[in-house]
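ok trying again, last paste got cut off:
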Amino acid sequence: MPAPATSTPHRIYLAGRWVDSPDVLAVGNPARPDEPAGATYNANPEQYEEAVTAAVAAFEHTRRMPAFERSAALRHISAGIAARREEIGRIIATESGKPIRDALGEVDRAVLTFRIGAEEAERIGGEVMPLDLNPASRGRTGITRRFPIGPIAAISPFNFPLNLAAHKLAPAIASGNPIVLKPPSKDPLTMLAVAEIVAETGLPDGAVSILPMTRELGDRMVSDERFKLLTFTGSPEIGWKMKERAGKKRVVLELGGNAGVIVDRSADLDLAVRRCVTGAFAYSGQVCISVQRIFVHEVVWDAFVSGFMEAAAALKIGDPLDPATDLGPMVDLAAARRTEVWIDEARAMGARVLLGGTADGPFFPPTVLTDVPAAARVCREEAFAPVAVLAPFHDFDDAVRRLNDSRYGLQAGIFTNELDHAWSAFEDLEVGGVIVNDVPAYRIDHMPYGGSKDSGLGREGVRYAIEDMTELRIMVMTGGR
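nice, full thing came through this time. structure:
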C-alpha cells in the first residue's frame, strides 16, 4: 500500500503495512510555530503488540537470510534516499529546524551509512582457531561465527532524525535482526519517508516497523523481554534509567556530553578558529558532540578569542530553508528559554558574556562566555545549545585535567602540532574518541563512536553495532584420530 499524500497525516509503518490510529500526532515547525510541518499517528498498544509479535515471527526468516539479500536491501535503501535527497532534506529542515545545508549533509551521511551497512552485511565473518595447544586437544579445530540475537528495540533522537536512526536500522538489517524503531515525536516524518523506501525492499513482514508512539508506550519497549537488545540515543538522565529497567537484554546507550577542545600553543589558529566555530554553533549546538568547552593556551589566547568572536558574530541566523542560513531555531521555545536561564545563572556566578546570551523566540544567537566557574551548568552539564565557554590554560597537563573534570566522556578535540601532546591526549583523555587537529563534532559513519562515564555504553558505527547485535558462537571439530 502506498504512503499517503502529504496533505493528510502520514500513516505509520507496521510490519510491512501502512496503518493509522485514533491518536493523531501533530508535528511542529520550529521556525514557524504557527505553520505545522505535518502530522502522523502515534501507535496504540494493540499496534505495538502486533509489531513486536511480527518481529519475533520475522526473526525465523531474517536470521536465515543470505548476505546477498541483506546487502541488496540496504543498497536499495541507500539508493532510494539518494534519489529523494532534496525532498528528505526539506522534511528534516522543516520539522527539526535544521538549516537546509546541514539537513542535506545529514541525508548524504545516511546514504553512506546504509551503503556501509550493505558492505558490512557481506563481511560478517569468523575465524578458524587451532585448538591443539595441549595433548588433550590433539586434532581439534575451532570455527567461530556471529549469529543474530533477535528482535531489537530502537529509540532515536530529534537532532539527527535520519542518520542516528540509520545507525540502528542499517546494522540491524545487515546482521539479520528484526527491528522496531521509535522515531522522535518532534520530527518523525523523516523516518516515515524512509519507511516508504524500506517497504520496496522485499524484507520479510515484521523485519522493520517504524512506529511513533507516546513515551509511556516507548517505556514498554524498554522492559519487553521479547527484545534482545535496546539501542537508545538521547539524554543520560533517560538512558541510564532505561538500562535499569531493561532486564536481561543487551543495552547500547549513546548519550550526551559537554565536549571539550584544547587549543595548544602550536595550533594552526586559523584552522582551530574555523572548526571550533562550526563545532560549537552548527545546528544551534544541538549535537551531543558539539563544542562546549574550549581551553586555549595563554600564548595564543588573545588571537584565538579575537578570531573566534569575529567568526561567530558573522554567522547568519534565519530561515532554515534558506541556503545562506548558518543557525536556525532551537527545537522549541522551551529549549531557548532554558539556555537563557543557564547563561543568566553563569553571569550571576561571575561569568562574562562576550557575545549573544539572549533568546529571540526559538532563535538563539551564537553565545560566547569566559570566566565561567566550573560549577556553572553551562560548564558542568550538556548545554545542547549554541554556547561556547572559553578558558585559558598555562600547562598542557592541566588542560587535560580540566577537560576530564566532567561526568561526560564522549569525544574531545585537540589542536596541536606537538606529537607528544597528541599522544598524551590520546593516552589521558577520558573519552571515547580523541580528534587531533579537529573538533569533537567530527564523525564519519564507519568509525567506532560512543563514550565513557555518563556519555554511554557500547559503540555505534555499523561494524561495531553489529557486534552488539550478534552473538559469537564456536563449533569445535574433532578429527577422529
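cool. The two ends are 60 Å apart (CA to CA). The CA atoms of residues 10 and 40 lie 5 Å apart.
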